[in-house]
């Protein structure tokens, strides 16, 4: 259950993360789950402005990733992109399941190749609204909705209400945020609580308030083009989800 992180940051040749000196990274944006990944694909990522610079290869009981870059929003993969105009801006799209016993490896191998000085991390993920703890009935909640959780070092204004106690986050989003807390890295997690488990327009657009955040607003591409890409992603998803009896 070993994880391999392969980078092509230099000369186009794939190298394991442990083989290179840590590189400078000012912004690291991590999307975890199909809806968060589709949000970045629609509103941020552009093949003209971004280039693929890394891939995570792993195997577990839920997924087996490959190093292909021609991926669909329903595929299981974990890819890293770098902004061509500013190589210190890194983006990760992680649609694959990272098992509990693989999360520490993921953190060590991904963050181990970045300099932690001057680094700021933004995490996007989704979670079933049934997991949200509140005195109100979850049936009356205006799902989907965003909640934020941040490290002590994150001083900027968040784009939605903070997550209240006794709610907790889990899996890879929690692992990334905990890692940042331990290493004193400014980081914020935006978690979307939704009642739809598949790729969904309403859930994807629930992340839209983040487009005005300091870390994302300079990266937003043309909104009209984003709408077209979003429709294309959902059409592709519906085609691949068809069941014939």
Automatic annotation (TrEMBL):
Which keywords has UniProt assigned to this entry?
Answer: Chaperone
GO terms for MF: proteasome binding
Output the Gene Ontology cellular-component terms.
endoplasmic reticulum
One BP term from GO: proteasome core complex assembly
Keyword Chaperone among UniProt keywords = yes
Pfam families listed in its UniProt record: PAC1
Family classification: Belongs to the PSMG1 family.
- Designated name of the protein: Proteasome assembly chaperone 1
Q: Which gene encodes it?
A: Psmg1
């Amino acid at each position: 259950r070993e994880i391999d992180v392969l980078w092509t940051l230099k000369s186009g040749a794939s190298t394991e993360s442990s083989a290179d000196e840590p590189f400078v990274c000012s912004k690291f944006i991590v999307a975890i789950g199909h809806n968060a990944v589709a949000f970045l694909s629609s509103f941020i990522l552009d093949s003209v402005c971004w280039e693929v610079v890394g891939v995570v290869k792993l195997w577990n009981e839920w997924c087996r990733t490959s190093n292909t870059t021609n991926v669909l929003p329903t595929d299981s993969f974990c890819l890293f992109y770098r902004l061509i105009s500013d190589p210190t801006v890194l983006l990760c799209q992680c649609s694959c399941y990272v098992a509990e016993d693989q999360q520490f490896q993921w953190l060590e191998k991904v963050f181990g190749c970045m300099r932690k000085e001057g680094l700021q991390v933004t995490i996007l993920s989704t979670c079933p609204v049934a997991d949200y703890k509140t005195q109100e009935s979850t049936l009356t909640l205006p799902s989907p909705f965003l909640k934020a959780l941040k490290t002590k070092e994150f001083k900027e204004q968040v784009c939605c209400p903070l997550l209240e106690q006794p709610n907790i986050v889990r899996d890879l989003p929690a692992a990334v945020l905990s890692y940042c807390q331990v290493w004193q890295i400014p980081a914020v997690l935006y978690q979307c609580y939704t009642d739809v488990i598949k790729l969904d327009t309403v859930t994807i657009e629930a992340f839209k308030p983040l487009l005005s955040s300091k870390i994302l607003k300079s990266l937003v591409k043309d909104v009209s083009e984003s709408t077209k890409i979003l429709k294309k992603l959902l059409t592709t998803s519906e085609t691949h989800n068809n069941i014939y009896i």
